[in-house]
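Re: [help] complex structure
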Amino acid sequence: MSTRTGMKAKLAIVVPCYNEEEMFPTSRSTLCAVIKDLAGKEKIASDSFVLFVNDGSTDKTWGLISEAAENDASVWGISLTRNCGHQSALLAGLMEARKYADVTVSIDADLQDDVNVIEEMMDRYYEGCDIVYGVRSGRKTDSFMKRSTAQLYYKLLEKLGVKSVYNHADFRLMSKKAVDELARYKESNLYLRGLIPQLGFKTASVYYERKERMAGESKYPFSKMLNLAINGITSFSNKPIKMVMHFGFFVMLVCLAAAVYAFVSYFNGDVERGWTSVILSIWFLGGVQLISFGIIGEYIGRIYTEVKGRPLYSIEEFISHGEENGDVREKE
Ligand code: UDP
Ligand code: MG
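Output below.
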C-alpha cells in the first residue's frame, strides 16, 4: 500500500454557500480554526485554505466572503454568476481547488457535519486513501419525514443497482488525483454521491453524528431535493425504462387472458356485461401509459440537457492567495 508519509499536504476545504449570511461567520471561524489546528499539528501545510463558493446568493453572503478573503490568507472565495445549485457549486469549488491544493474536503456551510473528523480523514489520506467518506452513524437530528424518505430512497437506489454509500452526503475528502479523475466526467446531471464511488481508488469511511443546522434555514426545498433524487436514479440506472417494458409485456399477457375471457363470454351469449371491465381497463391503461411516458420523458429531458453540454457554472470572481501548481499526475 502506498502511504504518504514525509510530506505535508496542502488542504482546501470547499464550502458551497447559498444565502448563508447567518451561518458564514461561524463557518469561517470554525473551519479556519480547523486549518490552524491541523497545521499546528503538522498534519497539513500552513498555506492550506478554506474555499467558500458563493452560489449566486441574493443576500450578503458574497460581501462577507470577499471581505474575509481580502483580509485573511486562509480564506479564499469564488463567486458564481448565478445560482447553479449545490452540486454544481461544489464541483466549481473542487475544480478550482485542485489547481492549488493536494487534497480537498467538501463540507456544507451549515456545519451539520462534524469538522472534528477532518483530522481522521487526513490520517486516512496519509495512509494512502484517495477518497474518504464522512458517514453519519445515525439520523437522530433529521425529522421523521426526512429520515424515512431518505432510507426509502437509499433502498430504491440499491434495488436499481446504483452504487452509493449509505448515509453519506457530500462531506468527503478527495485527493487531487481523485478530483482530477472526477474532472474527466462531463455530465450535466450531477449526482456526485453516485459518481464518486464509480471513480474507484482506495477509499475509507469515517463516522460521525450529524448535528442540526446551526443557523439559517435549509436551502434545499422539496423541489430541489426531488430533482437531485431523480438525477441519482436516471444518471446511473436504466432500470426504470426496462421496468416500463417489462410492465408492458405483463399488461399484454393480462390483455390476452382478458381476450380469452371475452371470447368465452361472447359465445355464452352474455356480451353486454362488459362495461365495468372496459371502463376499468381504459382508465388503468391510460394511467400506465402516462406513467410510462413520464419515465421515458424524464430520461429524454436529461438526455437533452446532456447533449447541449452547457457549462454547469460560470465564475464571476475568484479571490485566491496562492500559485497554481502543475499537473499532479507528474508530481505523484
Ligand atoms: N447550497 C448551494 N446552492 C443551492 C442550495 C444549497 O450551494 O442552491 C448549499 C448550502 O449553502 C449548504 C449546502 O448546499 O452549504 C447544503 O444545503 P442545506 O444545508 O440547506 O441542505 P440540507 O442539509 O437541508 O439538506
Ligand atoms: Mg444542511
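Residues 328-332 have pLDDT under 50 and may be disordered.
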